[in-house]
Amino acid sequence: MQGLIGRKIGMTNIFDKDGAEVPVSVIELGPCPVVQVKTPKKEKYGAVQLGFGPVRATKTNLATVGHFKKASLPAYKHLQEFRVDNADEFKPGQMIDVSIFNGVEWVDVTGKTKGRGFTGLVKRHKFHGGDETHGSKSHAVAGSIGSSAYPSRVMKGKRMAGRMGYQRFTVRNLKVVEIDLEHNLLMVRGAVPGAANTILRVTASS
Prior knowledge:
The protein is built from 3 helices and 12 strands, in the order βββαβαββββαββββ. The protein is mainly beta. It has a 6-stranded antiparallel beta barrel with strand order 1-2-11-10-7-12. Strands 5-4-3-6 form a 4-stranded antiparallel beta sheet. Strand 1 (3-15) and strand 2 form a beta hairpin.
């Protein structure tokens, strides 16, 4: 298994061995405890459930606390599941850190994009907008959105104003630039979804 839960710290620039400036996203990755192991014999597939972000037991419910007690672990805020080929290699309570990405060159990063709130057509769908001169009052309005006689309604899926962002998004094939084992940091070239402190799922690219 080459996958972990982490959080986005931010972006910065570093210099590679040739002296070139490289923009990188810094991700705090793990350490993540194994909370549950799912086996093909019992659950019909092999997977490992990992936790991230310790949280007080009073901040969660009794069912969740009991789930962690089975693995002799304190409560964690985030849980995610990762498929594995051999579930017998893992056991509840085992800690997995960023060192599993040693030797990995490319990763996929999944997270929620920044929320932009309620936005108009120009910002949300990159519409051209109306004329800016001659007394026009249609700079950023939709204009005609439906037919008259037929079908006499607005078709489903019509691009209109609405909430933008805060959606699950995956950036694939990001190059691993550096791994800091001491501070559990993974640095990848380019941008990853979300603002600072966004929870991310990082897996080795297939």
